[in-house]
Design goal:
The protein has helices spanning 12-15, 31-36, 71-76, 78-83, 85-92, 97-102, 105-109, 116-119, 161-167, 185-188, 269-275, 282-289, 304-322; strands spanning 5-7, 22-25, 44-47, 56-59, 62-66, 171-176, 179-184, 207-214, 222-227, 238-247, 250-259, 266-267. The protein is an alpha+beta fold and 324 residues long. Among the domains are: 56-110 and 157-214, Uridine Diphospho-n-acetylenolpyruvylglucosamine Reductase, domain 3 (2-Layer Sandwich); 220-322, Enolase-like, domain 1, CATH 3.30.390.50. Strand 11 (250-259) and strand 12 (266-267) form a beta hairpin. The chain starts with a strand and ends with a helix. The relative contact order is 0.13. This is FAD binding domain-containing protein.
């Protein structure tokens, strides 16, 4: 780990407005690991845990989560579990209990990829060193993405709860020295294209202060399914966040997003459209799931994800419809 200066600002105003060499420390479950590996080498670290960025508020207008709220506290919140079960389930399927006790919701949304080449400073990586190459394209790529990839990067986005939040059309509130702005989470993340080192729309010194989930009464009928190599403490091979509004034996509306297969949390509007107006049964789900792999670019070691993605969606929808 390289030397850095450390401070604990007493206000949001004092925290924001730094340069690209400043890192914010909340739970530290990603930042500290990457600093130890010297993947990240900030010259300045700001401990923001004393800032007033907490609160879990579920009301008529939706849900507000303070960026410093711990993942375990959000998952245990009764209003979240009852009104937005997909969020609670995604959080409970993330990491271990110990890490969930430490990790903040804001930090989770900003966590970096688990691509082994990104974390190995002896390997080239366009995210870490632009222009150096992406060895995953022709190398070990079983865990990598099939959606939203480019010739420059095929790394998968790691967050579970980000998938649930994208499905629910959530937004993040951001603060810098010039003021506050709100960005839809689906627009917050950037696909790699030719600039994979730019992972989101955060400006230097800008801070995530809140996560905002709009009111969606039928989000009570939602679920998160995660497929992984082992039952606990493992990143997704594929995951699905689904919510259905069923009226009169037909699907009036649907929200679907997937993880473990995309370079960003991947919303599937074509699947949602294929579900609307149809009866909630296996044939409907299988037909809709065929739309999920449009534009997929499988690699030699992860081509199985095209099949796994469709099966994961069908299983999630069947489980939701069965109420289990």
């Amino acid at each position: 780990m390289r030397a850095f200066t450390f401070a604990a600002p007493a206000s949001v105003e004092a925290a924001v407005g730094g340069d690209g060499q400043t890192a914010f420390l909340a739970g530290g479950t990603t930042l500290v690991d990457l600093m130890k590996l010297e993947v990240l080498t900030p010259s300045r670290v700001l401990d923001i845990n004393a800032l007033p960025l907490r609160g879990i508020e579920a009301g008529r207008d939706g849900l507000r989560l303070g960026a410093l709220e711990r993942m375990s506290d959000i998952a245990a919140d009764r209003a979240v579990a009852e009104r937005y079960p997909v969020i609670a389930e995604a959080l409970l399927l993330s990491a271990s209990q110990q890490i969930r006790n430490m990790a903040s919701i804001g930090g989770n949304l900003l966590q970096r990829t688990r691509c082994g080449y990104f974390r190995d400073v002896t390997s080239p990586c366009n995210r870490r060193e632009p222009g150096s190459g992406c060895p995953a394209v022709d190398g070990a790529n079983r865990m990598h993405a099939i959606l939203g990839t480019s010739d420059s990067c095929v790394a998968t986005h790691a967050s579970d709860v980000a998938v649930a939040l994208v499905a629910l059309d959530a937004a993040v509130r951001l603060r810098d020295a010039t003021g506050t702005r709100t960005v839809r989470l689906a627009d917050f993340y950037r696909q790699p294209g030719a600039t994979p080192q730019v992972e989101n729309v955060l400006r230097p010194g800008e801070l995530v202060t809140d996560v905002l989930v709009p009111a969606l009464p039928w989000a009570r009928r939602s679920a998160y399914l995660k497929i992984r190599d082992r039952q606990s403490y493992e990143f997704a091979l594929c995951s699905a966040a689904v919510a259905l509004d069923v009226r009169g034996g037909r699907i009036a509306d649907a929200r679907v997003a997937v993880g473990g297969v995309g370079t960003v949390p991947w919303r599937l509007p074509a699947v949602e459209a294929a579900l609307r107006g149809r009866p909630p049964r296996r044939q409907t789900f299988e037909t809709a799931a065929d739309q999920a792999v449009r534009g997929a670019r499988p690699l030699p070691h992860n081509a199985f994800k095209t099949v796994l993605l469709k099966r994961t969606l069908v299983r999630a929808l069947l489980r939701l419809e069965a109420g289990t």
